Model the fold of this input.
Amino acid sequence: MGQILKRIVIKLLWVGVVFLGITVISFWVIHLAPGSPTDLQTTLNPDAGVEARAQLEKLYGLDQPLHVQYASWIKRLVQLDFGQSMSGDHRPVWDKIKERLPLTFGMNVASMVLTLLIAVPIGVAAAWWRGGTFDKISTVVVFIGFAMPGFWLALLLMLWLGIQWPILPISGLTSLGYDNMSPFQQMWDVTKHLILPVFIYTSGSWAGMSRFMRSSMLEVLRQDYIMTARAKGLSSYTVLFKHALRNALMPVITILGLSVPGLIGGSVIIESIFALPGLGQLFYQAVMSRDYPLIMGSLVLGAVLTLLGNLLADVGYGLADPRIRIGQGRER
Amino acid sequence: MKRRPLKRQSPWMRHALLITGAVIVGIMSLAAVFAPWIAPFDPNLINVDALLLSPSTLHPMGTDALGRDVFSRILFGGRVSLWVGFVAVGIATSIGLVLGLVAGYFGRFVDEIIMRGVDIMLCFPSFFLILAVIAFLEPSLTNIMIVIGLTGWMGVARLVRAETLTIRERDYVLAARAAGAGPMRIIFRHILPNAISPVLVSATLGVAGAILTESSLSFLGLGVQPPDASWGNILMEGKEVLGIAWWLSVFPGLAILFTVLGYNLLGESLRDWLDPRLKQ
Done:
């Protein structure tokens, strides 16, 4: 037990180090890039001279050396204060992120569930009938799915389901008369707006996931206990669903944790195509207006989610495979 | 090195995938290289008499909102994709190769530091960072290639390190060391050539990834800047006229799909062929 505890502590310390590393590099890259957030406010205003600019920089603390800025940023971060947005409304960064989090998070969770629902059966069937017709066809489809650019598929579906045969809305989160609808209608309205985006999210991950499911299943089917189960005369059904699937599924579920960075990246494009007010769109706007605190806040959030995903994947592996837990450890 | 025969299951399928991949990559590369000779029009030639024409024999893929020939623009966009793919992957592979070799060969704290660096880089929400850096540095082809390259070396480093760890223990390395070869000579003459096949595979797959990233960035307006054509920015312009000019949205996407598919097929088949052990 003591050993496990030690491993957990080391792991958590390491997560802290990685987190600091990410913030240092991000901070450095973002602040050293040419241009400044004051550009937008000063160049747009012809009256603003050099002095006004210096004043603004002082207000934002941009006149101080970088390491001082970083120190004060991290000091506030420890108190969960992400600072204030530099653009327009000057609202706290965390408030801006908070109001957009549910949409992006919800879409990601929905697409993860959908991904599993699609990928697991495909992977299992392909592994069970390995080399058979289904395996061959699914291999080809998976390769095409891999190569499909999500934003292009989005355009095609918008063209098809939104314009030529308009059954789904293609932009925004709500329809025009949203405020006058009953709660049930409102729910249906939002759902309808989210069908295409969630589908596009899923299109980016089902192919890889089904491939992973297939190889995980093949690995399990090779094990001795499957042969034992077959040898003692259990039906294919029992072998497949009671013995094999349970063992093959765990690594697949944990790998979902590793797909977090991809999902975060995808949100920028998908939310920009469908004009959805989520985190990706917020980040895009922040980048465009050089809103340093907001950019850093989003990057931190992205890093935290990624690290959490990795941690969950690690824990999941441990739970799925006691050989790792007992401590010979994986080759890193 | 003796090659084991291919897996028994459906050899025709493996060959079919390899050949399909090679043919697609070949056609797309040739089209890109010879674009100036194949293209029927100047890709940037504006023609106000031919705005948003649907595909015809004169304009096989139609024209865009400025009357430019879409087929020619796609051919020239192919050059951008090919260029980005190769340069970005070249950068990523070189970094990954050197760091992986060094980490694997020297081991101990050198290894520890490099691999922890890899872990940190892998936790980056990299598309966010790429987006921010490109937007700050002014979007341009060079910047895109460099940034994609600098954020994509981690996989190669891990692969090469793992290979190096096993090759380091081989007898011929021991023999070289006994004969007085220095670390540089051992790494580059004896280890590198034997560690190269998984790198080749990951580089091929990397080209596909880089092409996708570039087209996403261009689609967001942060990639190749108009009037220069790239598949991503043709799609961006196509989105504005989605309802009236489907050809602007369909053809560039098909080009991306086919190219990425080609490199993926080639990479996966190479993986099977070069090293049966690597197969999942």
About this structure: Confidence is low (pLDDT under 50) at residues 326-332 of chain A. The first helix of chain A runs from residue 2 to 32. The two ends of chain A are 22 Å apart (CA to CA).
